[in-house]
Design brief:
Chain lengths: 305, 188
Amino acid sequence: MKDGLRRSFSRRSFLKGTVAGLASIAIPVGSSDASIWEAFFQKHFREMNDDEKKAVINRLEEEYARKFNIKFNIKTTRAIPGTLFGYGLDLSRCIGCRRCVYACMRENNQSRDPQVQWITVLRFKKGEKWVNDLEEAEKYYYPEKVPEDGYFYMPVQCQHCENPPCVRACPTQATWKEPDGIVVVDYNWCIGCRYCMAACPYGARRFNWGTPHIRKSEINPETHYLGNRPRYRGIVEKCTFCIQRTRENPGRYPACVEICPVGARKFGNLLDPDSEIRYIIENERVFRLKEDENTNPKFYYFFAT
Amino acid sequence: MKRILYPFIVCAILISIPVFSSYGEAGDDLPKFFVPPPPLSKGIFPCSQCHAYMKTNRTRRALTYHTKISKGFNHAREQRWCLDCHNPDDRDKLRLASGKLISFDESEYLCGQCHGTIFRDWKAGEHGKRTGYWNGKKVYRLCVQCHYPHWPKFQKIKPLPPPIKPDNIKYRELPKDKIPLNPLGNIK
């Protein structure tokens, strides 16, 4: 016994104690319940087993319930085997009405103030250079009626690259490509360095500069851990192909597909030869944005007949 | 083993013949997709409630009852008049160029007569809006659910507001009832 006591004051245990002590000071004490510790030492999402995930979900659901006074349902649905999601957007149909932008907002709980939007609709003048260099694009157009004569529109959102430069840029591995091709962000691992935003050639990632605000009446409580659950200040977010909808079985279409009044938006499984997205790729004039970047996007723009 | 199977195969073929022949009455291989009923104006259908007691007049003229349609009619105006699509003898039906009668809820065959490439793409799910499930039941829309048949070109609509410019973003704590609402409202 005496030996054990003496040993407990060895150099090693002294250092251990010091580090633990400092760590406890570093963590905010004000609301120092167990959940803060758990959040601080949360494992990487892909290394967690089902029990650990469950614990994290319970903690988050409690946290959100306290914060928003609403009961949230946070899913951790895995990718459906044999799926690789692809998206099609018909540029000869899009009228630039921005319904998709706000349907996305409604589904995915983006901050209303400061404003965060995952889709940007770009307007180009017909006959001018556009696709190599998006510099000529106008995103603040606001006429009485759309489509305007002499212009066309191109919505841009996360292109879900097969070779995503944002993933390589992330120093904490807080963003990665899932087996069904969706590039996701773990908002609890993101440190807000914004390297991914610099790496993305499409400007598809958004940063929460301020604490996200959203009215209680407009919150969508049906969420996914890697998707539309409420975000924090100082983290990056982006389009997830509505992971909380599309990973269901049967899976619903993303919110932007469902709202589009002209049916310009198409979604499906690239591995299914009978899917509409495969039909489009095989039969239409398809291109992908900035193909020379070798990002290999799964977002196909096309011109239908 | 094969001998046991043969009668089954023959039976299966015999049973399937009537099934496949009744498939796509209008002579097309259109798979049965769920399409909501056509957006007929309230009280207008069945057309025979009035037309059964009227004499058919085939001349091109300004109509006295369907005034809005006859005035606004803009669908290959020079080449077309009412009875090219509407069946003169039984007004509750539409008539294909072949003379075949179809009901109002399969009007895609009528549109497909001229707009063949669009019809082809619609069947594949490329043209037109689809909702439902990407790997399950899909809801299609009849052509006329989006394109008003008598002036099918889309009308222009008001866009939703542009994003807030970065220089107009304020870092502030708004009271809960001042947080901006989603301008989308209840649009489905």
